[in-house]
Amino acid sequence: MYYFLSMLSTTDLGLSISIPVTMLGIFWFDVREISFNACLSQMFFIKLFTVMESSVLLAMAFGRFVAISNPLRYATILTDSKIAQIGVAIVIRGTLRLTPMVALLKRLSFCHSHVLHHSYCFHPDVMKLSCTETRISNAVGLTAMISTVGVDSILILLSYILIIKTVLSIASPEEKKKAFSTCISHIGAVAIFCLPLISLSFVHRFGKQAPAYVHTMIANTYLLISPVMNPNIYSVKTKQIRRAVIKILHSKDT
User: Fold this and answer.
1) Crossing angle, helix 184-206 and helix 212-237, to 10 degrees?
2) Residue 29, Cβ density class (10 Å: 0-12 exposed, 13-18 middle, ≥19 buried)
3) Running DSSP on this structure, what letter comes out for residue 207?
């Protein structure tokens, strides 16, 4: 569990570092320009850490299922080496899926306005500025997200269907309550990750008449809410983390 929490923290830190580079530059120093290569790099890392977070949430859902359905074999199924392999696979999967998307953007020509609507480089936003055909880039980008975040969401849902089925077969009401309580933090993390992402997708595809600030607000919420809320969710629900936080706060007071 702590290995998975460390992975989740790493992806949240990655997002937290990737976004403010341009966001704080705009707000603090009024720096409103970014080179094309820097824009592509930021876009790649934002997408990479988003895909990685989705993959980590899927791995955590599998971990919850194993812990509830087969608790005695949890340590033998999810060994240190298996978790290390999962971590490496998550990074490789994201890199392989997203590299073609960024490579195709390099081939586009930009001859219209070069003004982005967000405080960071967002794939659909950059494609709108191109004056060449973007159907292939659009299809590759959409396929990359469906085959990663979309598939992960379906598998997470399937994991929870199996978890609910397993929990309902438990005779003791106290054991049922205990089993469900172990999933609350993860369900919260999944909701915080998925809901802003779905909202952003709907706004970009069906909310073209919405004011520009609505797009900007949802786009910022989509990437910032997860790194902000995940530490709070797991600090509240995980006793060891809660104790460590309280200990640090007490040591500062003294």
Assistant:
1) 170
2) exposed
3) -
Q: Is 88 exposed, middle or buried (0-12, 13-18, 19+ CB in 10 A)?
A: exposed
Query: Apex CA 185: angle with CA 92 and CA 175, to 5°?
Result: 120
158-193 residue pLDDT tens: 999 998 888 888 767 887 787 777 788 888 888 888
pTM: 0.86
Give, to the nearest 10 degrees, the angle between helix 80-106 and helix 36-69.
Answer: 150
Alpha-helical segments (H) within the chain: 2-18, 20-29, 36-69, 74-77, 80-106, 123-127, 135-145, 151-168, 173-181, 184-206, 212-237, 239-253
Quote the tokens at residue 88: 């490496």
